[in-house]
Automatic annotation (TrEMBL):
The chain crosses the membrane at residues 20-40, 52-71, 118-136, 143-162, 168-186, 198-219, 231-256, 263-284, 290-311. This is Sugar phosphate transporter domain-containing protein. Residues 32-309 form the Sugar phosphate transporter domain. It comes from the Eukaryota. Its main location: membrane. GO terms for cellular component: membrane. It is a multi-pass membrane protein. It is found in: Membrane. The keyword Transmembrane applies. Pfam families: TPT. Keywords: Membrane, Transmembrane, Transmembrane helix.
Amino acid sequence: MLPVEPAAPPGPDQGPEHPGLSRLLSALFYGSCSFLITVINKTVLTSFRFPSYLCLGIGQMVTTVIVLYVAKMSKTVQFQDFDRGVLLKIFPLPLLYVGNHITGLASTKKLSLPMFTVLRKFTIVMTMVLEIHILRKTFPKRAVCSVAAIVFGAVVAASSDLAFDMEAYTFILFNDAFTAAYGVYTKKKLGDQSLGKYGVLFYNAIIIVIPTLMLSAYTGDLHKAFMFEDWVETTFVLCFLMSCVMGFVLMYSIVLCSYYNSALTTTVVGALKNVVVAYVGIFIGGDYLFSWTNFLGLSICMSGGVVYSYLTFINNKSTTTAHEQNSKLQRTQVIQL
């Protein structure tokens, strides 16, 4: 059971030391990137029927490595050079990174957009549990109740999924677990100043791109990707390249949002983004089978996400204000003494 207690003053992992505008803009940036890449990946994997989500993930990883390497060589960004200590510093992020990539793309290919976004709500619960055990955080009762509403809505929507696919549901639940773990451990690893935001991104991608490439060759995915007939279509190539670039931008936005906020805030932003994606997915994508029970579950789930986000914002704002007032009072007392 999740521990419940009144909201405490912001801790070091909650990001109050960062300017409010930076926290807000990083959250909006992540939400926008997450929305765009979901639509683009869905277009590549479903509309164009690209046969390999592994190769799409490899394209995103390679893009990340190339962009950051060029930026480092041009001294646009700085991060630690590779040595043996890097592997220890960054573990287990590479494993979580590739797991998140592969399961996310697989579930995007196999699920309709609305069901994808509904089942992604379980990431919030998993993030809460991991933050409790890894970051030693606690959550107010209202936040726990809002999460319960989100999960209830997800269960209602999933119970009437007319396109039920056990493999797809397994992929999405694993994706939830990888996403939650990646977010929490990213927040933890960002405390290592020698790696920094860009080092975390670069070494994550470069460590796992070769094993993923070997896996795709072994499973035959690489051959299927090379033989794909739409490589001559300009529209497909543009969508594929957009997915590769947005893969890098998304990972950067996750790290940036986690740096300025908390892992849970990053998860909540993703959930709020899903409010838009789910309803857009009803009208585009062509694979949503409408039913009133499913739509009701979607609405409950999305409403819970909005309420949770609202409560989180109010709580953060009020606790930050109280913290600032307390600091001012302490400074006044010191001056008077």
